[in-house]
Design a protein that fits this description.
Blueprint: E1 4-10, E2 14-23, E3 27-31, E4 42-47, E5 51-60, E6 64-69
Antiparallel strand pairs: 1-2, 2-3, 3-6, 4-5, 5-6
């Protein structure tokens, strides 16, 4: 579990504010998922130590969403 706010870059939506609540080597989960994001869409985020990394949306519910990193961190 983590409490980390990031600004993600999305090619269509531009900057998107996300709140990461869970993080692993394979991906992360956010709360308050933007309704504009659909499964399969890609975003780029910047994490401490890791730097910029791309992820794609794997699943989404009304209030949460899970993303998988392009590579294991």
């Amino acid at each position: 579990p983590v409490d980390h706010k990031v600004i993600a870059e999305h090619r269509r939506l531009g900057d998107v504010h996300l709140h990461i609540v869970n993080l692993s080597a394979h991906g992360f989960m956010i709360d308050a998922a933007p309704a504009e994001l659909a499964r399969g869409e890609r975003i780029t985020i910047r994490l401490p130590v890791v730097g910029r990394i791309e992820a794609h949306l794997i699943w989404a519910t009304e209030d949460r969403a899970g993303f998988q990193f392009e590579r294991i961190i």
